[in-house]
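Appendix B. Raw example, untouched.
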Amino acid sequence: MTAAHLLLGLAASIGRSTLGLLAATGRVAIFAADAVSQLFRPPWYWGELGRQLIRIGYFSLPVVGLTTLFTGGALALQIYAGGSRFNAETVVPSIVAIGIVRELGPVLGGLMVAGRVASSIAAELGTMRVTEQIDALTTLSTDPMKYLVLPRVLAATLALPVLVGLGDVIGVMGGYLVGVYRLDINAANYIRNTVDFLTTMDVVSGLVKAAAFGFILALMGCYHGYNSGRGAQGVGRATTDAVVSASVLILAANYLLTELFF
């Protein structure tokens, strides 16, 4: 095989991959637009929305709380160890607070909820697709997008900022406990430095990120579950794809939103 054939084959492979990526992006965008448009057309299933808020928000609180608690404590230890080389131990409270509120709280909260919720949504909707329950809803004149997708996407978008806000408080408290009781930092100074260095924009940016991450993870779970292949293998693939795509998109969106805010 000549070099020209090799280059032609490489170019064709790149072209197919690019076209496949663009086609997948278009399908997700159309699915997202269809889901969002359902918000402005009745009927609205408030009971289903309430159930999803409890399922996505309330039941995810222990996971998010424990994650941010230990992350705040570990962050305090690492910053203290690094700052002590330059006699800058006093920066521990401010950097822990800013790191948790701006980045670690939203990102870790989004990733943990994505692992728990996106996989659950994809498995649930994928099973409904395989067992033809989604087709049955259409037969009963119930729009699956409105009844199944919209409540989950809306609930995650509303619940994530609340979860992340609570996680921020717990994460800062984890840093406080380690800083005061393990590193012997004065408690009053720790609280004062935390309050003085946090700004409104730090908190707002983290909560906006959380809302965006909630939308992304629920959308990915719904998309892959709704379009699941047939059989147990198709449901398993949809579940895996939902978690992977949600995690990657959360990290990419985090960078874009950080550029936008700061």
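End of appendix B.
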